[in-house]
Amino acid sequence: MISLALLESFFTQYGYAAVFLVLVACGFGVPIPEDITLVTGGIIAGLGYADVHVMFLVGMLGVLVGDGMMFMAGKTYGDKILRFKPVARVMTPKRYAQVQEKFDKYGNWVLFVARFLPGLRTPIFITAGISGKVSFTRFLLMDGFAALISVPVWVYLGDYGASNRDWLMNKVHQFQYGLFILIGIGAVVLGYFWWRKRQRIRFYHRKLRELRQQRQALRAAKKAERAQKQTQKEV
Q1: Residue 54 pLDDT > 90
Q2: Per-residue pLDDT, 232
Q3: What is the spatial distance between Cα 114 and Cα 102, in angstroms, rounded to a whole number?
Q4: 161-178 tens-digit pLDDT
Q5: Which of 174, 49, 203 is nearest to 19 (CA)?
Q6: What gap in Å lies between CA 214 and CA 27, rounded to an integer?
Q7: How far is it, in rounded angstroms, from Cα 133 to Cα 128?
Q8: What local confidence, expressed as pLDDT, does residue 235 receive?
Q9: Which residue windows are coiled coil (predicted)?
């Protein structure tokens, strides 16, 4: 795991380009914490080595390019990409099944939540591309909306706490825990609405079956009645 001090040294020396490249690498599933990368970008801005507002834009561009490349890789190559060794390390069969289950359960909202799930982010974006059910525009909107929440939080937090690292890291951990709690609450809410939707669908299907059965019984009764009348005429 790359430390904050190492990232700070690298970013101080190479500036915005370094931040952008590391964020794109995060999108590829490289084990570098995206939140720490963004916080470090904010730190060097707070120390005067960069402009914090430009760093925010670089952060947005980096995460969207990295995520978009994973999505397009899945969309372009389909299931074949799962045989590519670097992808296979990130997208294990078990993880692929978990992601597919989440898509079936929560739909496109998984793309929004994925931005806050480091371990599942890359597999989810690849799976979204493989599925062919999500357009690039919709993907970009969902991922971009989530990035507009996470990226400024980390960048501006790093800028504000650049001179007090203990306070900063404490706040980073607090924000991380807070995000996980919000995601958990959101998952429960989405799960409830998903369950309600399933219940309504089952209710409508049951009613349709009952209507079909009633119509079939009515047609059978009319047919039997006509047959009985025909028999009486023949007698």
Answers
A1: yes
A2: 63
A3: 11
A4: 988 888 888 887 777 777
A5: 49
A6: 56
A7: 7
A8: 55
A9: 201-234
- Cα dihedral angle (163, 117, 10, 43), rounded to 10 degrees? -20
Task: Give the model's pLDDT for residue 186.
Answer: 66
Scanning the structure block, which residue is given the tokens 């007090």?
Answer: 164
Shortest CA distance to 149 belongs to which of 194, 127, 179? 179
CB 160 within 8 A of CB 46: yes
Q: Look-up: residue for tokens 């706490």?
A: 161
Phi-psi region of 77 (alpha: psi -120 to 50; beta: other; left: phi over 0): alpha
The CA distance from 235 to 230, in Å, is 9
Burial 116-130 (b: 16+ CB within 10 A, else e): bbbebbbbbbbbbbb
Q: Give how far Cα 183 sits from Cα of 121, 180, 188, 205, 209, Å.
A: 14, 5, 9, 32, 38
| CA–CA separation, 81 and 139 (whole Å) | 19
